[in-house]
## 1
Amino acid sequence: MLRLSLACVFVSGLTFAAPVVVFNEFGPGNTFMPGPGITVGCGALCFIDAGHSHGWSFIPATTTSLSLLETVGSLGPSATGTMIFTISADVGGVPGASLESFSLPLIPIPQFVAFPSTLHPTLLAGQTYWFTAFTQDLVNQAGNVGINSVGVTGPEALRIGSGPWTPTASSAYAVFRITGDQAQVPEPSTLCLLGFGVILLALRRCAGGVTV
């Protein structure tokens, strides 16, 4: 009984990360709206200005640490281009500081891409965050972000060049999915069984009963 109690104490601090989708606009089978998508960058070629960055808001239903960003990107009307995607905090209803960024060399055909997180920033339930997209060279490069096919819309933001973000809205909302890791604590009975197994294995090793 003492050994079993010690086993429970030994593993009581263990937690396990479980992946949770906190926001998703893909249709069944990762489908999205066919077509070129929402254009960003393209200052000289499309908008005759300093180039566009675009942001789309989302609110996680569960607190997690970011583990994966999935979206769709393609090359716009430029010879080459690199897209920059970010997950950013909210400041006054527009994107604020970037929590993590990801880059994608663009090809003409829309491509589904998945970016594993390396920084794992915390996304708090009920708080607003932003998925943003822009090209590495806002003036001379152009990229397209895929549009969701399930009809999801919400607050958006637009920035021209290095100017301030301004709220905007449209009927074309980017397609993306956010997955996070949620810490889960095993049930007490599971903890005891795990701990008892660890201690039993250690005792058998000490007694010479286990060979590797």
## 2
Amino acid sequence: MTTPADLFALPSTDPVRQLPPRWRQRAAELRPFAEPAARAFELAAEELAASLASTDEQLLTLKQASHLSGYSADHLARRIREGAIPNAGRPHAPRIRTADLPRRAPVADRPRSGYDPAADARELLSARREDR
């Protein structure tokens, strides 16, 4: 089952993970002019960093990890057996830390192959509009 915390299990390259250092930098820039605003940025950075760190330590079953990563549970189990992903659980009850979870690119980001009905429909609509 997906929990709200699962939705924030993001790869390190995700823009959300880049927010705490950016907010700390902004706080340093604001400090000479607006101390309360600078402190608010620092506090927000600390809270977000703590939340992201606690999410990284969450242990997931193979089914949960499969749902979040885009890889099948069998593939993840094989990667654990190969040692590519650390097993945070027991030998016959593997768990994967959220921070160790591989992420597959979302379907929208992957190159498409074959027929795309949505693109075909857009092309037809565009051609009809041009004919008018």
## 3
Amino acid sequence: MKILLVDNDTVYLNLLAEVLTLHSYNVMKAQDGAQALELLRQEPIDLVIADVSMPGMNGMNLHRYVREDYRLKDIPFAWNSGYRELRDILQVEDSRIDFKLDKSMPIPNLLHFLNHMKPLPGNSRKDTEELEAA
């Protein structure tokens, strides 16, 4: 499964990427929404896990762009946030969000969640190359 992690906190981003890579996930990283959109348009991705609050294009705007793009709209999208205050949670409510994760979630719980995700059909590199050749 190919996961795109999006977070402006490079320490957290690199740590989470390393953990997921050690558990056999194919991980791509972006430090903001604009960089993530660029990667999404170049690579087949099975899941986006994006921080909500980032400078520039934040996770909320990235989600909006992904849902409006017919090529990307079916990619599962998870907001990953450290916010715990009610006002912050209410600010990011969106019924089209597939998953809401907490940055303090224990790694075993995150891995359990990811193990139950399935890659999108036709989203592997082989499937993409076959479609382009047709």
